[in-house]
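Suppose a colleague, Dr. K., hands you the sequence of a protein chain of 307 amino acids and asks what its three-dimensional shape might be. Before reaching for any lab equipment, you can write down a predicted structure in token form. Begin with the sequence itself:
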Amino acid sequence: MGVNSEISIAQLVYFVHAAENGSMTAAADELYVAQSAVSTSISLLERRLGTTLFLRKRAKGLELTADGRELLIRARQILTSIRDAVDSVNPNALSGVLETACFKTLAPFYLPPIWARLSDACPTLQVKVTELSCPETLTALKDRRIDVALTYDIIADAAVHFEVLQERPAYIGLASNHPLASRSAISLRELADEPFILLNLPASREYFLNAFTSNGVAPKISYEFESFETVRGMVAGGHGYTLLNQAPSHELTYSGLPIAAVPVLEPVTPLNVVLAYRTGERLTAKAQAFTSICREVVHQAGALPVL
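The predicted structure, expressed as tokens, is then:
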């Protein structure tokens, strides 16, 4: 793509919204402008760049081309830089929108207290959060769809910096009436023949299964769920055992049945609760406000018993 000084900020805004919505009509609705304004602006942008940014498919909407995907990343960076430049001379810099993400199983634990403090400390800041898996979070950061995330460090990526907030060791979850529930620690080998209930999220699946294989154990996977609480509920109901890291402050599940959490006898690499943001980039004032409150909330949660 060639460089053209006649490209406007509005064209980039329309392009980004159309790309994120997969539709010019949806982008227009979101921006409160006519659909023809978005369509005309993007067509003009394509002519000035000398390339096609979208494949127009009647049944499926818009699909980004390779050049379109590249421009989307760059356009987000440009628009963020413009917002930051305005904020740098704005006495009310902690206003506007901050795009963030949170790992799916961490969200119920940390987002409510984080939001309570944010609303008090930064009442004019609108923080949008998306629940994502670890791989999805890394992609969203590199694509500049989000600026910061509260997640686990399951996958390393040189483009993303992890700031460790809290270590979460793995534990075995059992029904409270399981014969081993009162033990101070349990070997994975002792449970190898019992039904294993797997929390099946991208990268999390590999982490949990590696805990077994690295210790020479092959689990008998009987159930797989993407919901943390479904896994706990099945365990509490006596349908098998599980391996988890995050532990609620009480042992009850949604069904009202308790679950016992017992440390693992074998060495299993713990997971760290982390703040994730792009390596080598300075956080905006909005992102700094968000991360500061995340640190406070997670550190205070660390005062709870760690299994």
